[in-house]
Write a structure and sequence with these properties.
Strand order of the largest sheet: 1-2-3-4
Shape: elongated
Helix content: 40-55%
CATH class of the largest domain: Mainly Beta
Keywords: Membrane, Transmembrane, Transmembrane helix
CATH architecture of the largest domain: Roll
Strand content: 15-25%
CATH topology of the largest domain: PH-domain like
Number of domains: 2
Number of helices: 4
Largest sheet: 4 strands, antiparallel
Order of helices and strands: HEHHEEEEEEH
Number of strands: 7
Protein name: PH domain-containing protein
CATH superfamily of the largest domain: Pleckstrin-homology domain (PH domain)/Phosphotyrosine-binding domain (PTB)
Structural class: alpha+beta
């Protein structure tokens, strides 16, 4: 569905919020590499530390932990990147268009139950770079959820726009219109 088709059903176009899929892939790649390196060093250290009680078992556990966590998070981000490739949210006067890989779903404001599970800045190191800095879920009336994170440009503005439209009845105005 082209943007012009959606605009007719949801009113005037206001703005778009693209998700940075290439950044999500780079993060997945970095996590996978970290996991492989952790396991590549952790397995030999584990084998070498069998029967010892000095620092080697702790080092082996640390390396294996980093490896397994890196691989797990890397696979998760890679799966997410592939599932949401070319994701974009188009804000219109009467709703959203959620586009993924050429498929568009029209979501009128009336189909959105609320913004749920919003988390403000995650204080952990590099949270923003990992896409964990700000997250929220768009909860639809049919019980589906669309998750948005900091890989989506201006995610906070998107959350505020949806909240104002759904909870306060303050709908965004399309280009060339005044509130």
């Amino acid at each position: 569905m082209r943007r012009t088709d959606a605009a007719r059903e949801l009113g005037g176009f206001v703005r778009e919020h693209r998700t940075d899929g290439s950044r999500r892939l780079r993060v997945a790649g970095a996590l996978l590499v970290t996991g492989v390196i952790g396991l590549a060093f952790g397995v030999p250290v584990t084998i070498a530390s069998i029967g010892t009680t000095d620092g080697a078992p702790e080092l082996a556990g640390l390396l294996l932990g980093v490896g397994l966590i890196g691989l797990g998070l890397g696979v998760w981000r890679l799966t997410q990147a592939l599932r949401t490739r070319e994701q974009c949210f188009d804000v219109h006067e009467r709703g959203l268009t959620h586009r993924i890989a050429g498929n568009a779903t029209l979501i009128p404001w009336t189909d959105i139950e609320r913004i749920g599970s919003a988390t403000a800045d995650d204080g952990r190191p590099l949270a923003e770079a990992r896409g964990m800095g700000f997250r929220f879920a768009v909860e639809l009336r049919d019980a589906r959820k669309i998750r948005v994170d900091t890989f989506t440009e201006d995610a906070r503005e998107l959350a505020e726009t949806i909240h104002r439209a759904v909870s306060m009845g303050q709908f965004p105005q399309g280009r060339g219109r005044r509130p």
